[in-house]
Amino acid sequence: MSLKCDICFHHCELDEGRTGLCRARANRGGQIVPLNYGRLTSLALDPIEKKPLRRFHPGGLVLSLGSFGCNLRCPFCQNSSLVLTPGSQPEIPEEEVLSFLKKRKGILEGVCVTGGEPTLSPDLPEFLKKIRTLGYPIKLDTNGTHPELLKALAEQNLIQMTAVDIKACPDNYPSLCGLIHPDLDAVKETVEFLKNGALDYEFRTTVVRELHSEKDFIEIGHWLAGAKAYYLQAYRDSEEVLQPGFSSYSQEELEHFRKILQRTIPLVELRGID
């Protein structure tokens, strides 16, 4: 029996045994089941300078963790195995992660929950509550396609900051997401919620020479006008990229885009420049 998945805007029609585009939902036994429930597949200690949480606690370490699955197909994605081949990923027990955090209270400054797309995990609120009980501030990385969940997490004080990936200007979103009809309305709702709300945030774009142009940043400047913080991230090619072979703009070219954005966004910085 074919079933429709309602986890995201794709509304995938899944026959028995089939998995949705996100690779995180499947039709099993006549039910849509989450394949990533309780499954953590990535874990890393990062300098806090790599994360926006540095504004809370500069100079320390944060634990970055995440699971698989994503509802976009950005060709420049740096985590293709989390998106396309989740079965190849290691499984890290939740209890092990929580034990790790308990033992490092006073050493770690926070937790960054990333992906894939973490808002596809049905147990995300429950998991965040357990981390918050330990006293850690949490930053959530997201593509912005689940504004209602983001609002709920903020209202419950389960996250203290979010970083939203702005893929491109609105007109260019389909090609940058690898989709014909991405849910840009949801991303716009996320942007407005953050610009007008109390949750700390940043917007960011990984800049790819073959995919972005000056036009993108002129239009993004209008779209995100008045935003708190926006980061231009230099693209890095690797075998883990969904479609390897792209290249980055030079620092001078990125500085040019930065100046365009500063006309409407007070804080614009470059990230990932050697």
Quick summary:
The chain has helices at residues 80-84, 94-103, 124-133, 147-155, 173-177, 184-196, 214-223, 251-261; strands spanning 3-4, 13-14, 25-28, 31-34, 42-47, 61-66, 108-114, 138-142, 161-165, 200-207, 230-234, 268-271. It has 274 residues and is of the alpha/beta class. Strands 5-6-7-8-9-10-11-12 form an 8-stranded mixed β-sheet, covered by helices on one side. A two-stranded antiparallel sheet has the order 1-2.
Number of domains: 2
β-sheet strand percentage: 15-25%
Strands of the widest sheet, in order across it, are 5-6-7-8-9-10-11-12
CATH topology of the largest domain: TIM Barrel
Give the CATH superfamily of the largest domain.
Answer: Aldolase class I
Structural class: alpha/beta
* Strand and helix order: EEEEEEHHEHEHEHHEHEHE
Instruction: Using the coordinates above, name the CATH class of the largest domain.
Output: Alpha Beta
Number of helices, where a helix is a run of at least 4 consecutive DSSP H or I residues: 8
Q: What's the rounded overall pLDDT mean? A: 89
Gross morphology: globular
What does this structure look like?
The protein has 274 residues and is α/β, with parallel strands linked by helices. It has 2 domains: 1-35, no CATH class; 36-271, TIM Barrel (Alpha-Beta Barrel). 27% of the residues lie in helices and 21% in strands. It has helices at residues 80-84, 94-103, 124-133, 147-155, 173-177, 184-196, 214-223, 251-261, and strands at 3-4, 13-14, 25-28, 31-34, 42-47, 61-66, 108-114, 138-142, 161-165, 200-207, 230-234, 268-271. The chain has an 8-stranded mixed beta sheet with strand order 5-6-7-8-9-10-11-12, with helices on one face. A two-stranded antiparallel sheet has the order 1-2. The chain has a two-stranded antiparallel ribbon with strand order 3-4. Helix 7 packs parallel to helix 8 (251-261). The protein is globular and about 50 Å long. The relative contact order is 0.12. The mean pLDDT is 89.
